[in-house]
Amino acid sequence: MTTLITGGTGRTGLALAKLLHNINKPVLIATRSGKAPEPFKAVTFDWFDATTHEAALSPEANVDQVYIVPAPASSDASVVIAFVNLAISRGVKRFALLSATIFEPDSKSYVPVGVVHQHLLDTGVDYVVVRPTWFIQTFKVNYAVSIGKDDHIFSAAQDGRIPWVSTDDVAQAAFEGLTAEKSPNKDIFVVGPELHSYEDAAKILSSVLGRTITHKRYTVEELADFYIQIGAPPEYANILAEMNRKVEQGSEEAVFSDSTAAAEGRKFVGKHTLLEFFQENKSVWAKS
Fold first, then answer.
1. 243 lies in some domain
2. What is the mean pLDDT of the chain?
3. Do 98 and 159 lie in a common domain?
4. What are the pLDDT digits (tens) for 220-259?
5. Which helix (H) or strand (E) holds 278?
6. Is omega for the bond preceding 37 within 30 degrees of 0, making it cis?
7. Distance between CA 209 and CA 99 in Å, rounded?
8. What CATH number is given to the structural domain containing 68?
9. What is the total count of domains within the chain?
10. Are residues 119 and 42 in the same domain?
11. Is the pTM of this model over 0.85?
12. How many Å apart are CA 243 and CA 212, to the nearest integer?
């Protein structure tokens, strides 16, 4: 039987594919291009083209598990729910959903992943929902230019602290949920081993790069405007900016310190630290 991985060439999807491949679990990578790196098989998949859903779940694909990464910047949960229903009808037994710490299951949520999470609960299917905090890889993807060119990172999180987590650790949490003999049937917070503010991150980067990196502080409104200016849809830009406000208010630090979630087996603590990540990727931020 096969695990279908949507967003299969993304940061968590490809890492998950490698973990499954290492235990000889067949994997099918779902991408819009229909291409995947060796040694993986791929299938063309587009959340907004239902015909590709049919192909990905064909009898020949033999899919019994699915890793769901909802379409970014989309406010439409219905396409994912329709896919989940189709998958169940085709014999899929377990789902792993990529969500986030701040998104609760809610059929009326303004965030699609919250609606999908609630739908998994309502169907009674086996599942795990991985709810990571903020990705360490943000510094490589979102801040490569601002660090390399202008020696700064930016946020509206002020002095709020985050247990930054690696996408490799997120993939590990999803892997364990999909391969456990008994399905977890719970949501699991995925955090890194340390708490750091953006100010802390700038200081660590400075020590690794040998030059001063500063933290540019935006208001939430300024940050939303910035995201809109670089092409984000206004609704999505506002969600991203408001996430910064929640960090300032202590949302991510509270997850890190949540002893109840840990006691219930609902918290996965990763191994990768900011310092290690910065040291391994320092060439990304070379002065341009």
1. yes
2. 95
3. no
4. 999 999 999 999 889 889 989 999 999 999 999 999 999 9
5. helix 274-280
6. no
7. 32
8. 3.40.50.720
9. 2
10. yes
11. yes
12. 27
